[in-house]
Amino acid sequence: MHPPTARDEALAALRGMGERVTAPRAAVIEVLAGTAEHLSAEEVAASARGRGHDLHLATAYRALKTLSSLGLVRHTHLPGGSTTYHLSTSAGPRAHAHAACTSCGKVVDVPEEWLDDLVRRVRSEQGFELAPHHAALTGRCADCRPA
Amino acid sequence: MHPPTARDEALAALRGMGERVTAPRAAVIEVLAGTAEHLSAEEVAASARGRGHDLHLATAYRALKTLSSLGLVRHTHLPGGSTTYHLSTSAGPRAHAHAACTSCGKVVDVPEEWLDDLVRRVRSEQGFELAPHHAALTGRCADCRPA
DNA sequence: CACTATGACGCGAACCATTCGCATCTGCAA
DNA sequence: TTGCAGATGCGAATGGTTCGCGTCATAGTG
To answer: Which residues, 6 or more positions from B17, have their beta carbon under 8 angstroms from its beta carbon?
Structure first.
């Protein structure tokens, strides 16, 4: 009935780090564990409300920030100012960067290893440690790209 | 006295594209031509005011958007929501991408050719045409990076 | 198992960067 | 010189996110 869920894993991790396990935090984790999508804070709050939890937007932001700083959640800044969140469980999808289409807004996943050379180069020559998944790349997707 | 300035070059280009040459647009170009920095819209407006031009912030945004769409100005989205603008003249600095430190906010320039392999790969395998200079990469700079 | 204090929550207001609506003004082609 | 498409100035609106503050609950303590 209950395969070991990403949800339980994350909640256990939360507790293990000495953080409080509160209803809003659990709701956020539950929502993120229940989808493969990248959700905005607003979507997280809405989805939590749809499941019967009453989650204020500001609280969703706070929970997401906390979980991010603990490493349980990853967030990606999209051009246009919005931010998307997803769980970073061991069982989750492989690490990937994002590329957002400036025309239609579509986001495609870019395998993180495609960025390895760049990361190495920037590190060795500029001492800068890139976090490639943290901000989306931009460009034009196949559909919007000029011929 | 007057070497052919980036300012004149840009103004001529504006005119040549059949666009109106207005005082606000000229002021924006003048400000951007007068610095090697990347400026925010607010900084552009402030700097223009400092030079005696009266430039409303909304107008600065409109001018910057117009100039961007014409290719005379490039803009880069930084994490945190702000955007920086710089002239994209032939005489300007070499094309480069940006990497912003999530800790101290410092922005370092990354040679665009370091991204060539990535761009090629994403294009050939996903049909997505990256514009690497358009959004800043993120990470930790040499000073803020954990040892 | 009750008690308490630390830290989270809920709420609305505040904030920041950016955009919009609209009346007015102006560059530039005729 | 004139006409008008299009640009400006202004303030108000928007979208995303954070803050202040009074209230409430988790989790360690006795």
So the answer is: B70
Distance in Å, residue B64 CA to nucleotide D1 C1': 33
Q: pLDDT digits over B33-56, tens only?
A: 999 888 999 999 999 999 999 999
Q: Which nucleotide is nearest to A78 (CA to C1')?
A: D16
| Residue ranges matching CATH 3.30.1490.190 in chain A | 96-139
pLDDT of residue A73: 94
In strand D, which positions have an atom below 7 A from any protein CB?
Answer: 6-12, 15-20, 25-28
* CATH superfamily placement of domain A96-139: Ferric-uptake regulator, C-terminal dimerisarion domain (3.30.1490.190)
Determine phi and psi for A139, rounding to 5 degrees: 165, -155
**Nearest 5°: phi and psi at A137?**
-75, 165
Q: Which pLDDT score is estimated for B4?
A: 63
| Domain B6-87, classified CATH 1.10.10.10, yes or no | yes
